[in-house]
Amino acid sequence: MSNTLLKLSDLTLERGDRLLFEQFSLRLHAGEIVQLGGANGAGKTSLMRSLVGLLFPQQATYSWQGHEVQSAHVYSDEVLYLGHKPAVRFQLTPLENLRWYANLQSTQVNSSTDEDLISALCALGLSGHEDEPCSQLSAGQKRRVGLARMAISRAKLWVLDEPFTAVDVHGVKILSQWIEKFAREGGTVLFTTHQKIEFDGQQPRVVDLDKPGSVESS
């Protein structure tokens, strides 16, 4: 597969006294969906956080769209990262949280309207909670507020750590459809999950950290 969006080479990463990665390499291509696998403790979350600039490896070489860059921070504006925490402001409502995120992307053409934001929230089962402070929502509802960013994101790369957790069957289907649509439009998705996810079209390329031979893709 051509058209490499992000290439990570020679990653060496230690957490505490443990060596997680040594001379590790990974390529992510435009328009592909990649599922990151491996046992608990294999380093999936640490790898994702290294890719988005939230962890600082002892060594790594990054190439973004064919150009070597000094760190992941150079392309961080082009990445949507959703980790284990909900990443919402609890004092704001779900609609206000999405407005804030949309405003970060206001330089992009066709910025999202309130109708777009409400539609994204309703798709994930948050109808009727749009104007309720997030502090009053359940943990699962807070997480879905953060996940709704996927519907309005203008990023080129989505890095999603267990996005299907605390989401019902309908929500899982909606998220899967968003992921497939994003990839069809040329976006790149890297995600982890402990669930069996069914995609209607493109099936993910699986990169299993427990199987080194599955990692590098030229």
Describe the SSE topology.
Elements: E1 4-15, E2 18-29, E3 33-37, H1 44-51, E4 59-64, E5 67-69, E6 79-82, H2 94-104, H3 114-123, H4 139-147, E7 157-161, H5 169-184, E8 188-192, E9 205-208
Helix pairs in contact: 2-3
Describe the structure in your own words:
The chain has 218 residues and is α/β, with parallel strands linked by helices. The chain has a single domain (4-214), classed as Rossmann fold. 25% of the residues lie in helices and 26% in strands. It is built from 5 helices and 9 strands. The strands form 2 sheets. Strands 6-7-8-3-9 form a 5-stranded parallel β-sheet, sandwiched between helices. A hairpin with a 2-residue loop joins strand 1 and strand 2 (18-29). The longest helix has 16 residues, at 169-184. The relative contact order is 0.20. The mean pLDDT is 91.
Mean pLDDT: 91
Which structural category fits the helices and strands? alpha/beta
Overall shape: globular
Low-confidence stretches: none
Give the termini distance in whole angstroms.
7 Å
* Rg computed from alpha carbons, rounded to a whole number of angstroms: 17 Å
The first-level CATH class is given as Alpha Beta
CATH architecture: 3-Layer(aba) Sandwich
The CATH superfamily bears the name: P-loop containing nucleotide triphosphate hydrolases
Could you please say which CATH topology applies here?
Answer: Rossmann fold
- Supply the number of structural domains: 1
How many DSSP H or I helices?
A: 5
Beta strand count: 9
State the helicity in percent bands. 10-25%
Tell me what portion of residues adopts beta-strand conformation.
25-35%
Strand order of the largest sheet: 6-7-8-3-9
Order of helices and strands: EEEHEEEHHHEHEE
Largest sheet: 5 strands, parallel
